[in-house]
Amino acid sequence: MLSVAxxxxxxxxxxxxxxxxxxxxxxxxxxxxxxxxAVGLSLYTLDxxxxxxxxxxxxxxxxxxxSSCIIYINVFMRRAFLKKPIRIEVLVGAxxxxxxxxxxxxxxxxxxxxxxxxxxxxxxxxISFVCASIGNVVSERILDHGTPVIQMNFWAMTYALVFxxxxxxxxxxxxxxxxxxxxxxxxxxxxVFGSVLAFGAFMKLVQQIGSDKAAYVVLMYPLVALFxxxxxxxxxxxxxxxxxxxxxxxxxxxxxxxxxxxxxFRKSIKTN
Length: 272
Known about the structure:
12 helices; globular; 0% strand; mainly alpha
C-alpha cells in the first residue's frame, strides 16, 4: 500500500510541477472535484490495492485472462451511468480478445492449483476490475465536461494520496523509506512511465474514443510483456500462442472499427 502511495506521490508532484511551469489552471468546479476524488479512490487506490493483493494468490496468466472482463464491465457501466449506447463491435472485439488470451496462456494453467487461496485471489481481482471500471467511467464523465487530462490526473492522484496514506496510518503501517537503490529506480520508472505518461495517454484515449474502447489496452499489456520476454528472457513461442496474438489483434481491429462488423459477417456468409 505504501509503495503505491509513494508512486502516486511522485507522479502527482511531477504533474503539479508541470502545471505550474506551464501555467495550466488548476481551479475546477466543485462537482468535478468530487468526481476526481471518486477516480482517486476507485482507480488509483482500490484498483491497485486489490490487484496487488490478488497477485499473492493467483498466477499472472489467470490475471491476464481475467483482465479482459474490464472491457465488458466498462461497456455496461458506461451504458448504465453515462447513458451511452452499447457498441456491439466492442463486445465482439472483447470476446475475440478473451479467446486469444486464453490460447496464449492455456499452457500456464497447468500450474494452477484449486485451493481456497485461488478463490480468494479471483475474488480480489474481480473487485479490482470493478473498481477500475468505475474509475474509467467516472473519468469519461469528467472529460465530457471539458476537463483537461493533465489537471484531472493531477487532482485524482492527489486525492488518492489522502486515501492511501489515510489507510496506511489507520492500519498502523510503518512509514519507513526503503534504502535500496533498485527500489527507487523502479519507483521512478513506474511514477514517470507507468503513471504520468501511461495514464495520461490512457485518459486521452478515454476522451477521444470512450472508456469502452480504451479498455482494450489491458489486452495489449500481456502481449508487450511476452515480446519483451522474448528479447530478454528467451521466451519460446508456440503456434497456439502466435494464433492467440493474431486473434487478439484482430479483435482490437474490430473493437476500434477498423474492420466493420457488416464486412466481417458478409465474408463469413460468403464462405459458408
